Amino acid sequence: METSARKNNLRLNQLQKSLRRGCGRAIADFNMIEEGDLVMVCLSGGKDSYVMLDILLNLQKHAPINFAIHAVNLDQKQPGFPEHVLPEYLDSIQVDYHIIEQDTYSVVVEKTTEGKSYCGLCSRLRRGSLYSYAKKIGASKIALGHHRHDLMETLFLNMFFGGKLKAMPPKLLSDDKQHIVIRPLAYCKESEIAEFADYKKFPIIPCTLCGNQKNLQRQEIKKMLNSWEEQFPGRLDVLFKSITNIAPSHLADNELFDFKNLEAEREQSKLAQQSGNDLLNTVNLF
């Protein structure tokens, strides 16, 4: 029994170090958190947001900069939603928090055509509520719990169903230029997040809105990626690296790369080379 407990503690520490390392790298690479920031950490009650809050609180204690954390949950008034769970948990860890109460559930159910996904409208309404509250409290950063797998899923969702080569950015300026959204778990693996959440025994609250819908496009993409990883271990590591290593000259977007004027660039290169040769010949005369 003691040996088992020791192994569990060892594994928990390994997971925490790995997640802290991934989170820390993402924060540094994208300058996510700065001195004096008020970071509004958005909690849904799912494993990802619990882990994000836990890791950020841990980093806050050891970071070379000072920043504040304010946890926020949007109570969307879903039937059967256990309203007591998050407040009790947040009180137990003594974190500053606020619960926003807004019935977006009824709006989503009413406005969404039968058979269609709730996710699009739900996320827009949720985002609007969170942005409004962030402005009210003066939050300089809004932290969301999306992880590495989410970024890759979004890449394929946009390619397969949107005709765009676009993923989910680790850091984003909102359309109205008022809010900066950060995703500290952008480098973290979903498998490690799930395992860490299980060890920590977070009081997970299942989503009864889109979580109950079947055959969602994102779920199909998730299955595809998981099957690739099972068949070809390490493929997702390479795939994720490709998101951070883009070559616009080898795609076909005229907005990202000036294909139309390659001839002019070639001529400029010829002129520069000829000018260099002329200068060298002049020097050699002396």
UniProtKB/TrEMBL annotation:
Its EC number is 2.8.1.-. A motif (PP-loop motif) lies at residues 44-49. The keyword Iron applies. It is an enzyme of class 2 (transferase). Its cofactor is Mg(2+); [4Fe-4S] cluster. It comes from SAR86 cluster bacterium. Catalyzes the ATP-dependent 2-thiolation of cytidine in position 32 of tRNA, to form 2-thiocytidine (s(2)C32). The sulfur atoms are provided by the cysteine/cysteine desulfurase (IscS) system. It holds the Pfam family ATP_bind_3. Pathway: tRNA modification. This is tRNA-cytidine(32) 2-sulfurtransferase. Coiled coil: none annotated. It catalyses: cytidine(32) in tRNA + S-sulfanyl-L-cysteinyl-[cysteine desulfurase] + AH2 + ATP = 2-thiocytidine(32) in tRNA + L-cysteinyl-[cysteine desulfurase] + A + AMP + diphosphate + H(+). One of its GO terms (molecular function) is tRNA binding. Its main location: cytoplasm. It comes from the Bacteria. Keywords: 4Fe-4S, ATP-binding, Cytoplasm, Iron, Iron-sulfur, Magnesium, Metal-binding, Nucleotide-binding, RNA-binding, Transferase, tRNA processing, tRNA-binding. Residues 39-203 form the tRNA(Ile)-lysidine/2-thiocytidine synthase N-terminal domain. Binds 1 [4Fe-4S] cluster per subunit. The cluster is chelated by three Cys residues, the fourth Fe has a free coordination site that may bind a sulfur atom transferred from the persulfide of IscS. PANTHER family: AMINOTRAN_5 DOMAIN-CONTAINING PROTEIN, SULFURTRANSFERASE-RELATED. Homodimer.
